[in-house]
Structure formats: C-alpha cells, structure tokens
Amino acid sequence: xxxxxxxxxxxxxxxxIGEATARLFASEGAKVVVADRNIELALAVAESIGxxxxxxxxxxxxxxxxxxxxxxxxxxxxxxxILVNNAGFxxxxxxxxxxxxxxxxxxxxxxxxxFLCSKFAIPEIVRRGGGAVVNLASTISxxxxxxxxxxxxxxxxxxxxxxxxALDHALEGVRVxxxxxxxxxxxxxxxxxxxxxxxxxxxxxxxxxxxxxxxGEPIDIAxxxxxxxxxxxxxxxxxxxxxxxxxxxx
Length: 250
Hints:
Blueprint lengths: L6 E4 L5 H12 L3 E6 L2 H11 L3 E5 L5 H15 L4 E4 L14 H28 L3 E6 L12 H21 L4 E8 L5 H9 L3 H9 L10 H12 L10 E4 L7
Parallel strand pairs: 1-2, 1-4, 2-3, 4-5, 5-6, 6-7
C-alpha cells in the first residue's frame, strides 16, 4: 500500500475530487480525515469508508475553524502526514461585474483557505518527520478563461503559493506540489446542466475543450494526488501537474 498508516487531511472531501481522493487514500492504507463545510456530506463519506476515516466540519476561510480541524485530526489519529487542499468554488463574473463580497468569498475559500490550512497543518507534518502537501490549482492557472476573474486570480495564486511553500519548507521534509485539473465531471456541472436550455449541447462543448473529447472523472485527479502524496514522487516539489485531457496543449 502506497500510504500505509499515513494520516491524510483532505478538505472539500464530501463530494467530487475530494471524496474520490479520500476513498483512494483509504484503499491505499491511509487514515483519512474527511473535512467539509457540509458535515452531512463528510459524515456520509467517512461512514462509508469505515473506521479508517473521520469526519470534521470546517470552513477553510475561517482561521479558528481550520485550527480546530487540524487539532481534531491530530487528536483522533495521533499526527498528520499529508494535507490535500481541495476545497474551493468558482463563480461567474468579470472585474467589472463582480460584487466585492463575491470576489472576497472566492479568494477567501480558494486561496486564503490554502494559506490557513497549510499554516496549521505544516507544523504537524514536520513533527512527524515530513510529508506532503498537495494544492488544487486549475488549468486556468495557465491559460485563463473568460468571465471567471476571481476564480482565475485565486487559482493562479494557488499555483504561485505552491512554489513559495515548496521553497520555504523543503529542508523541513515537506514536499509541496499542485494539481491542475481540466473539466471534471462533478455535482457542480450537474447543477449547470439542469439550468441551461440544452444540457446535451452544453456538455458536448465542455468535452470539446479537450483533445480527448471527454470530461475527466474525479478519480483521474485523485490518482495524481495519490502520486504526489506518496514516495513515488519523492523528488517532486514546487511543481504543478496538469491533468486536463490535453486542454492546455491546444
């Protein structure tokens, strides 16, 4: 098993990429903290995994909640080896059309959340002798996209922060990398499909963004997160690994 007896904290693990990662990590021998703002989703995932999983409710944009989340993780499993900063969300809007509070919310969850979770988790990882942090960036960190100004800014910040963290903590034995997913099938897109006039054509448009002409699945990203969290990637740090079906190769 690639993560035998490792303790992993995964944010936004109640659904999508986070859930797939939690399940994959547990199957590889890890003890998993399933963290999510929606405790009902987190509990459902943790209960279905079994005793190797523990659910915690936390808003990653609130320092006190993040600190308590990490403390609960350490108290329950005895330490922390891996942090996966997955929690995030996006919204439509340009710098002209976005309301200031919407901008703040997107930046707070996607970028400040990575800062806060890492701030409290990295010292615990160091106490265990080192480990890994994996941040979820996005292909828009590389190419951008129209009408997503706050989300593009936040994910670009995640990619840059990853490099800074990797340099700051390399000698402490903490490797820090990011994953840049392309279009991944999720409940986020399910809701969009319900709201557009022609969901079939809309989905075809999403699929056409990739040379592989399909959307990715959460497990596609979870597999890369597993690689970056395990000893298989022991010489990788400060890098962004793109998993987008070739979208950024156009």
